[in-house]
Design goal:
The protein has 276 residues and is an all-alpha fold. It has a domain at 66-232: MetI-like (MetI-like fold), CATH 1.10.3720.10. Helix content is 74%, strand content 1%. The chain has 13 helices and two strands; from the N terminus they run H-H-H-H-H-H-H-H-H-H-H-H-E-E-H. The chain has helices at residues 7-34, 39-42, 57-65, 68-99, 105-114, 124-133, 140-164, 168-176, 181-192, 194-210, 213-218, 226-231, 241-275, and strands at 234-235, 238-239. The chain has a two-stranded antiparallel sheet. Strand 1 (234-235) and strand 2 form a beta hairpin. The longest helix is centred in the C-terminal third of the chain and has 35 residues, at 241-275. It starts with 6 loop residues before the first helix and ends with a helix. Mean pLDDT is 82; it is low at 269-276.
């Protein structure tokens, strides 16, 4: 039998959850709030939560100084392209590890995960030399490949975890019906793993969207995404907090919209599944 939950416990639990949620959201809120202040008000001590001059001048200056749409388009191509390539490589890899394991499967998975522990600066020099050799510096193709390879271990691990939850009997039944490897992955495995693939895609897009180290070191102007767009407002003359906050708000807005849309679609899908 389910244990009864008192009203007091519900109130306390709800209050703690709201407090944690607001604490996590506060940096984003403060960035957005600062973007509507003047530079003097942005560095005011004590901080101004209200009673400041609301202005859109920072957004106008940022757009006048930088071509926001070009940086945004680069981020969309790099994040989307790296995610698509990663999924195309990771789905067959995770399938083989989940359903046709060998003695070395766990070792390979641990090795793949261990590559994430290597500091990125440790491989910056050889990768830079490779990029120079193949003329990939400051290109969206080169940056897409690097970010895909960086996030590939996480994609494989997540898909492997989801695939392990799918009963092997279903795949064996498909094989008995004459399904080949391609049909098994496309028409049996993939539809059953759509929730796992969707969450993996969303996480990879966020990771690729926020990648700063490689974008700042391997791009200059042509392929620079929004992370380079934000970094351009940290100059030797000083930090322009209001303009930096406006640039950050413009950079995180698409990913916040994507997260909100994904959450709505997930809730709708779960509701539809429950009703069905």
């Amino acid at each position: 039998m389910a244990r009864a939950i008192t009203t007091r416990r519900k109130i306390v639990t709800t209050g703690v959850a709201w407090a944690i949620g607001l604490l996590i959201f506060f940096p984003i809120y403060w960035t957005i709030l600062t973007s509507f202040k003047t530079e003097a008000q942005a560095i005011n001590n004590p901080p101004l939560f209200w009673g400041f001059d609301f202005t859109l001048e920072n957004y106008a200056l940022v757009q006048e100084r930088s071509d926001y749409m070009r940086f945004l388009w680069n981020s969309v191509i790099i994040a989307g392209g790296s995610t698509l390539l990663g999924i195309l490589v990771a789905v067959p890899a995770a399938w083989s590890m989940a359903f046709v394991p060998s003695r070395r499967t766990k070792d390979i998975l641990l090795w793949m995960l261990s590559t994430k522990m290597l500091p990125a600066v440790g491989v910056l020099y050889p990768i830079s030399l490779i990029f120079v050799q193949f003329n990939l510096l400051d290109t969206r193709i080169g940056l897409t490949l690097v970010i895909m390879l960086i996030n590939l271990p996480i994609i494989v691990w997540m898909l492997y975890t989801y695939f392990r939850e799918i009963p092997v009997d279903i795949l064996e039944a498909a094989r008995m019906d004459g399904a080949g490897l391609r049909q098994e992955i496309l028409y049996v495995l993939t539809p059953m793993a759509i929730p796992g693939i969707a969450s993996t895609v969303l996480l990879n897009i966020i990771l690729a969207w926020n990648e700063a180290f490689w974008t700042l070191n391997l791009t200059a102007a042509n392929a620079a995404p929004l992370t380079a767009f934000i970094a351009s407002y940290s100059s030797p003359e000083g930090l322009f907090y209001a303009k930096l906050s406006a640039a950050s708000t413009m950079a995180i807005a698409p990913i916040l919209i994507l997260g909100w849309f994904s959450q709505k679609q997930l809730v709708r899908g779960l509701t539809f599944g429950a009703v069905k």
